[in-house]
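Protein modeling request. Please complete all fields; requests missing the sequence field cannot be processed.
Requester role: graduate student
Desired output: 3D structure, token encoding
Chains: 1
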Amino acid sequence: MGAISMNVAVAQTPADAVATQLRETVAAIDELSLVDPAAADVLLAVDDAALRAAVDNEPDRPLLLLPASDSDDTPTDRSTLLAHLAAHAATTVPTITRRVLSVQAGDTATRAVRDCAIVTTDPARISEYRAVTEETTLTTFRADGVVVATPLGTATYSRAAGGPRLAPDTGLAVVPIAPFAMTADQWVVSPPLTLRVERDDAVSVLADGRAVASGGADLTVSVSVAGSITVVDRRRLGERGRNWKNSNESSPQD
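Delivered output (254 residues):
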């Protein structure tokens, strides 16, 4: 058996079946030890719910984002990622800093790591939105909704809406959802950013996929940077030939 070189902890306990699989996977890797969060070198976040909980707790150690399922033998399945993690000491784990967004929707304040969105409450209903940066109107458009994504988030929901992939620290992607136009513009902006609903349609505000507020005409959603978290750079986790500690040279998909 190899010497244990890495202490890991689960940031938030996932569903029972996933938790059991995760414990079994960690136990099968000699170089990993499952410990209490206070003693961990790396925190494991399984699915976005765990990521949100970890962000709310302001972790002071890197987060390794793990998929909720482990059915594929790919570079980003849980078993492969944990095996790559076990090859490192705590001081050589490649990490990258990701922005945490502050989302203010009316009287509701929350935070997001991937994205925030405004969508019409009724499916396939169009509303009108205005995007403002530094007191200057960037654009107005009609669409089912709009998503504002961090570089981390541009690999998920905004990508499905046709948005671009962004490298770390390049700004925020503003992407209309199902726009009412023959050609749809998209924007990459520096925060802060304000979105406003221009028509009297019922809309919902989502932060990292969870509904946090609702409203109608004149609802404003302000997006700014609230801080940052450190996550394990999954793309370079399997590379041992270079010390990637605290590197910002990474793809949007961690």
